[in-house]
Amino acid sequence: MSRPAPRSLALNCRIHIPLLASILLSPTLHAAGAGWTESARVTELEASERGRFLLRVALEKNSSGCRDPNGFYADYGREGSELMYRTLLEAMTTDREVQLYATGVCDLGGRSGISAVRLRR
User: Fold this and answer.
1) pLDDT digit string (tens) for 48-69?
2) 3-class state of residue 77 by DSSP
3) Which residues contact 103 (CB under 8 A, 6 or more apart)?
4) Cβ-count burial of 64 within 10 angstroms (0-12 exposed, 13-18 middle, 19+ buried)?
5) pTM of this prediction exceeds 0.85
6) How far apart are CA 55 and CA 43, in angstroms?
7) 92, 42 Cβ separation under 8 angstroms
8) Of all helices (H) and strands (E), which one includes residue 20?
9) Are β-strands 111-120 and 35-36 bridged in parallel, bridged antiparallel, or unpaired?
């Protein structure tokens, strides 16, 4: 019995190289750890027309695993984003601490996405 001819190296390369390239060159979104941060003060809050608001929080430790340990963002299209923004603005103006719920998604140069905000005393 004859064995079927093995796939040629050229065929394997045509299939695997584009797949590998698409994985490596995909957008900067990646998964990280989800959960609540420790309580900290909001040091910067930026509203923009780019569909997201950005913020910085003075954290000692951030377990989200994103590259920027103090940078966070939320999409305006996400339900509750306006309430989160107002809560963060109140925290800044009253110098109160907040806790953020990190979604586990990193984007925008390593910032962590958030889906909830707790105002702390």
Assistant:
1) 888 999 999 999 887 888 999 9
2) coil
3) 34, 112, 113, 114, 115
4) buried
5) no
6) 8
7) yes
8) helix 9-24
9) unpaired
